[in-house]
Structures are given as C-alpha cells and as structure tokens.
Specification:
The chain is mainly alpha-helical. Helices cover 48% and strands 0% of the residues.
C-alpha cells in the first residue's frame, strides 16, 4: 500500500513570460502601408480600416523590430 500524494507535495517550476501588449496600429500596419503605397491619404486609410486618422498615421509609420 502506497501513501497518496497531494498537490502540495509535488514540486513544479513554471516560467511566466511577460505578455507584450499589441497596439491597434500594429495590427493594421501592413494593410495601412499597402493602402498608402496605392496613393490613399491618411483620412481615406482611416475610413477604410474604421480607425482614427492618428491610428492610420501611426500604422503607416510603424516599423517592425
């Protein structure tokens, strides 16, 4: 007969990595850059992506590291 092991007796090591926040303009950056290359203004890009003009500008200028 063996004793029952409880969760308190089991050792475990868990690595918790920090969650990196993804901003809205980063999600739309690729599409916004494509639209900008097609000659669209920031206002037009913002309207087509349903975001603000400032978000469209940030998305077009965003460079992935």
């Amino acid at each position: 007969m063996q004793p029952i092991r409880t969760a308190a007796e089991i050792t475990a090591q868990i690595k918790i990595y920090p969650v990196r926040r993804v901003y809205l303009y980063q999600k739309f950056s690729q599409k916004a850059k494509e639209l900008r290359l097609l000659g669209m203004s920031y206002e037009q890009i913002a309207k087509s992506l349903n975001v603000s003009k400032k978000t469209a500008i940030n998305a077009c200028k965003y460079k992935k590291l």
